[in-house]
Design goal:
The complex is a heterodimer of chains A (211) and B (464). Chain A has 211 residues and is α/β, with parallel strands linked by helices. Chain A is 23% helix and 22% strand. Chain A is built from 5 helices and 11 strands, in the order ααβαββββαββαββββ. In chain A, strands 1-11-6-3-2 form a 5-stranded parallel β-sheet, sandwiched between helices. In chain A, a hairpin with a 4-residue loop joins β4 and β5. The longest helix of chain A is centred in the first third of the chain and has 16 residues. Chain A is globular and about 65 Å long. Chain B folds into 2 domains: 275 residues, Rossmann fold (3-Layer(aba) Sandwich), CATH 3.40.50.10420; 51 residues, no CATH class. In chain B, the strands form 2 sheets. Chain B has a 6-stranded parallel β-sheet with strand order 1-10-7-4-2-3, sandwiched between helices. Chain B has a 4-stranded mixed β-sheet with strand order 8-5-6-9, sandwiched between helices. Classes of the chains: A alpha/beta (211), B alpha/beta (464). Chains A and B meet through α1, α4, α5, β8 and β9 of A and α2, α3, α4, β1 and α5 of B. The complex binds iron/sulfur cluster (SF4).
């Protein structure tokens, strides 16, 4: 047991006892159940393109991200080589397939200009890329530009479906990235790249298969 | 945090008189939050969604013991340490022991209202730990030595010019530095702090019982960093933050984000199940995760037959953003970490009615807060409940008079005066009879009662 012994167990029992007493005479409330589909926030941005990949593209772009759609390995490789030209070094998360690693010198995440990771899922409804801590978090967070590969078949319509798909295999930390880092804390003027990456590029691999 | 709520009137007066820019900045910021919330809800069946969200939270609260135990078990299975804290002192003791055992020298903090509530920064500083608030707004107010003015935007009361002056003095930036340059200066300092810190402290927006997940919503990426880079992560989580299932979380993340800023979801969401690094069999991440489940008055609130409903609060700030009284002064007038309508109903429950007594009166009972609350907390009803209790307890005598005095002095603006008069008109009868000043105000006039125009109507064609 990891429960902290020093006075902790007493506090735990006292808190739980107070909760039971507080709720003692209160009528319990039933869980209203799964959110009815009709109440789900809309998937398509502006009610326009309902296809999940289209909607993901529209929502992520609206949040200041960039989405590139690539039809197959050749076009992905060609695009990557050109994209990589503006960077001097890269920090790549574990598990990004060889083919999707730019040919740039590797650097520590805190020094690299570009971080590359592979999403474990995506949600069109919120324009979110799901990232797992199992591939390492530093490359997802420290470089100023973040390139995220995402397979079209992993793009879910709703956030609920995207999380549900990870349910059996939750890492230490799952993260949603839904745009570049931003803040309006200085005079309500939006500034990007405050702490996390100021540029987010999602590269969608449209052809199903092994990447 | 110390409670200064009894001075509400004095503080409100001082803000209105000495820093008139605050009212302008707060009003502009809250209006913009509120506009974004409105557009986000325009594409939803907001009413039905709020019914559902209310149901989930009420269910969680009426089964709170069971769900807390479930969350605890899940977290421990993943190798997290779970602590229970009855009071702020318990949190202090837990942190002090950790600091000593782990030899903590530097801590990075992600915005957490609970950490303000229990006074984490003064404790850590007394232990010789260097503490960095890493949310840009929190960093600004840390430099100023101020508490947050808003639960979502802690520095909304400061203008660009204020921050230019502050950073030029403290960080040596140009007096006319752009927001980008100012943010860049803060980033430089905080990036170094992230990389050198031994301890990261966060709050938690939600705690999912089914999976033991702590969920955190943000826009800057500082929460992800605070919970990923240091060797030890401590999450302070109020016991009321429970959600039963992961399936509930996806909707609550969206409803909270939309209510707070109108975004489909915050730019970054962290969903944390356990320690990372070698402990979690992962390439990086904290080796230790400590989750502190904090009561600090919450079970007392839960035992309250009426005010318990306020524990559904997801801290979205929507009720602050729409509140005409909050907009006048921002959060500092309220004298406690939670301000605005929700602060006025939870502070008396968390602290005591005696110490926070005038807060339930800092409202016109216009009802706007109840209309926007995503979990349907009946705030105006609860304000009224606290007012009646204050009268019953005989708290209203002297303080209500000084409240009146404060407001009347603040009311140099004729239309503001009018607004206050109307606000006071909805005091319980017991009080208005005891207030000579109100009698003076109303002599020869009849006060509008419930049948008169709503406060929002007055507000619309009144002050602005
Ligand atoms: S009371 Fe409701 S509107 Fe106000 S912060 Fe809490 S959840 Fe949001």
């Amino acid at each position: 047991m990891n429960r902290e012994a020093e006075g902790g167990a007493g506090a735990r029992d006292r808190i739980l006892a107070r909760i039971r007493e507080a709720n003692g005479s209160r009528e319990t409330v039933e869980h209203p159940g799964t959110l009815p589909a009709g109440l789900e926030p809309p998937v398509a941005y502006g009610g326009q393109r309902p296809d999940p990949v289209d909607a993901l593209e529209d929502r992520l772009s609206a949040a200041g991200g960039r989405v590139v759609r690539l039809s197959g390995p050749d076009s992905a490789r060609r695009w990557l080589e050109e994209f990589a030209q503006e960077f001097a070094s890269v920090s790549i998360c574990e598990g990004v397939p060889e083919l999707l690693c730019p040919s740039l010198p590797n650097a520590q995440p805190e020094q690299a200009g570009l971080g590359v990771s592979m999403a474990v899922g995506a949600a069109a409804q919120t324009g979110s890329l799901l990232l797992s801590s199992t591939e390492g978090r530093r490359s997802q967070l420290l470089p100023p530009t973040h390139l995220v590969w995402v397979r079209a078949q992993d793009v879910h319509a709703t956030l609920g479906a995207a999380l549900e798909a990870r349910m059996g295999d939750l890492p230490a930390a799952l993260a949603l990235h839904s745009g570049p880092s931003k803040s309006a804390d200085i005079g309500r003027i939006i500034v990007t790249g405050v702490h996390g990456p100021g540029r987010l590029v999602a590269a969608v691999l449209e052809e199903s298969g092994d990447w | 945090m110390e409670v200064h709520s009894r001075d509400y009137a004095k503080r409100a007066r001082a803000i209105l008189r000495d820093t008139p820019g605050v009212r302008e900045a707060v009003t502009a910021a809250t209006r913009s939050f509120d506009d974004h919330r409105r557009s986000a809800f325009a594409e939803l069946d907001g009413e039905a969604l709020r019914d559902w969200a209310e149901g989930v939270k009420s269910h969680a609260l009426t089964h709170l013991d069971r769900y807390l135990e479930q969350a605890e078990s899940r977290l421990m299975e993943r190798g997290a340490h779970v602590h229970w804290a009855e009071t702020a002192e318990d949190v202090h003791r837990i942190l002090r022991e950790l600091v000593e055992r782990e030899g903590v020298r530097r801590a990075v903090k992600a915005k957490s209202m609970l950490s303000e509530e229990v006074g984490v920064n003064p404790l850590l500083e007394a232990e010789g730990v260097e503490v960095f608030e890493t949310d840009l707004g929190e960093y600004i107010i840390q430099l100023l030595g101020e508490p947050p003015s808003h639960i979502v935007g802690p520095a909304i009361h400061r203008s660009l010019e204020d921050t230019q002056a502050l950073f030029s003095e403290r960080l040596g930036t140009a007096t006319d530095a752009s927001p980008e340059e100012l943010a860049g200066a803060a980033r430089g300092i905080l990036r170094e702090a992230f990389l050198a810190a031994d301890l990261g402290i966060s709050g938690g927006n939600f705690l999912v019982a089914e999976t033991g997940s702590i969920a955190l919503i943000e826009n800057e990426g500082n929460i992800r960093m605070s919970t990923s880079l240091p060797r030890v992560h401590v999450a302070l989580v109020g016991i009321e933050k429970i959600l039963p299932r992961l399936a509930d979380l996806s909707t609550f993340l969206q409803v909270t984000s939309k209510s707070a800023t109108g975004q489909p979801v915050g730019t970054f969401v962290s969903i944390i199940q356990g320690p990372g690094g070698s402990r979690g069999g992962e390439p990086d991440g904290p080796e230790e995760l400590h989750v502190v489940l904090v009561d600090n008055g919450r079970t007392r609130l839960l035992a309250d037959p009426e005010a318990w409903e306020a524990l559904r609060c997801v801290r979205c700030g929507a009720c602050l953003n729409i509140c005409p009284v909050y907009r006048q002064t921002g959060g500092h007038a309220y004298g406690y970490v939670y301000s605005g309508p929700i602060g006025a109903v939870i502070s008396p429950g968390l602290v005591s009615l005696e110490e926070t007594f005038p807060l339930p009166f800092a409202s016109s009972l216009c009802g706007a807060c109840a209309e926007v609350c995503p979990v349907r907390i009946p705030i105006p009803h609860l304000l009224h409940t606290w007012r009646e209790r204050a009268v019953e307890q005989g708290l209203t005598e002297g303080t209500a008079r000084s409240l009146m005095k404060g407001w009347s002095r603040a009311a140099t603006h004729p239309r503001l005066f009018d607004w206050i008069e109307r606000a006071m008109a909805v005091l319980p009868d017991g009080i208005s009879r005891r207030l000579p000043m109100l009698r003076d105000w109303t002599r020869g006039r009849s006060l509008p009662r419930a049948t008169g125009p709503t406060f929002r109507e007055i507000w619309k064609d009144g002050i602005e």
